[in-house]
User: What shape does this take?
Amino acid sequence: MLPLRSLLPALLTLALAAPASAQDNGISDPLQPLNRQIHALNDGLDTYLLRPISQGWEFITPQFLRDALRNFDDNITFPVNAANDILQWKWRAAGEETARFGINTTIGILGFRDVASDWGFPKQDEDTGQTLGRWGIPPGPYLVLPILGPSNIRDGIGLIGDSFLSIYWIVAPWYVSLSYRSVDVVNRRAIADEDVAAAKAAALDYYVFLRNAYSQRRQALIRDMGAVETEDLYAFDDLYDFPEDEEEDEEDDQASE
Assistant: This one.
């Protein structure tokens, strides 16, 4: 996370200095030329590196193992979810998240099985970016982060808060945590492969598709309107989640390229 922390102040300065006239469907995107370049880089890395690796991973691992690893990673996000529930004054949600963590860590064998969902404690999705949004802080301009993908100024800064709440860097040396996170990224990319391929095939402009889907989903999560039907894309803290029925009608955006 250190490179991200050093990069965000510069991006914030650039975003505030950029013209405010670049608006699409209410989404501020004054950094679109830069965002598209980073998006192209991310898409190239996914197409030529991450996807082939994830397909090899899917070939050599059974479905139950991939699901177990995803459940385990969901379980150890407990500190981020619970802390942000408390910061948003969601006391019942914080209690349910604590119960979920206790059930899955014990009966679910360190979280490899998601027993809690069957018992009425479904997975929560809270982060510092959502907390800032609940506090009334606007999202700011849309921002595509290298490797991490779709974001905005508020959520990008929120990633710093999430990194402090995460237990990855506390319970293991950085190289062990990095290795584990790499496996998790590959695993989630393998699980989402069909959905990613369908989205790319259906979208007239994949950049616009991800931007609109990301922005709509984040607004829904902040307003507690319920999670949009999504699948993890690229597995970077849900930054690439998208609704399957998103329509592409951004002709003005394409003309501005």
About this structure: The longest strand covers residues 142-145. Residues 30-255 form one domain. The chain has one domain: 30-255.
